[in-house]
Amino acid sequence: MSRSVPSSTRGLLSSLTFPVAGLIVGLLILLGCLIFSVSFGAADIPLHQILTAFIQFDGSREHLIIQTVRLPRSLLAILVGAAMSTAGGASQFGKKTKKRKNNSRGIIANYGGTIRILSIAEKIVAVKKYG
């Protein structure tokens, strides 16, 4: 016995499938780039050492490099990218308003927000690094 899905629900499911799949693929690519960023540098660190740096931290040189330098740098890069894309999207939205007023104040506020987010992230990293 098969149950049929109403056409209105079928349209909703098909319209949500593509964005959700794109989000999942994008997050997987971001995770791969994060692992790549943490593993490669002046001292090449294998993948298993990256995993053991979080599961069984032993204080070795590689584990210290991962947790104090590379991971905060990579997470800050992700945060900066997210902040800049948000500011870019907001400025694009400001340009598409129906009233064609001088909208430079909103654009400046968006970029100011990006700078504020970056300064907060810098303070978080400094507090974590220097106590």
Describe this structure in words.
The chain has 131 residues and is mainly α. The chain has one domain. Helix content is 79%, strand content 0%. The chain contains four helices and no strands. The protein has helices at residues 7-39, 47-55, 61-95, 104-130.
Record keyword descriptors for this entry.
131 residues; mainly alpha; 79% helix; 4 helices
Oligomeric state of the chains in view: single chain
Q: How many separate structural domains?
A: 1
How far apart the termini lie comes to 64 Å
* Helical percentage: over 70%
Helix-strand makeup class: mainly alpha
Tell me the major beta sheet. none
Query: Helix count, per DSSP?
Result: 4
C-alpha Rg (nearest Å): 22 Å
How much beta, percentage-wise?
A: under 5%
The overall pLDDT, averaged over residues, is 77
The SSE string, one letter per element, is HHHH
Ranges where pLDDT stays below 50 over 5 or more residues in a row are none
Q: What is the tally of beta strands? A: 0
Morphology call: flat
Give a quick precis of the structure:
With about 130 residues, this protein is mainly alpha-helical.
Task: Write the SSE topology.
Blueprint: H1 7-39, H2 47-55, H3 61-95, H4 104-130
Helix pairs in contact: 1-3, 2-3, 3-4
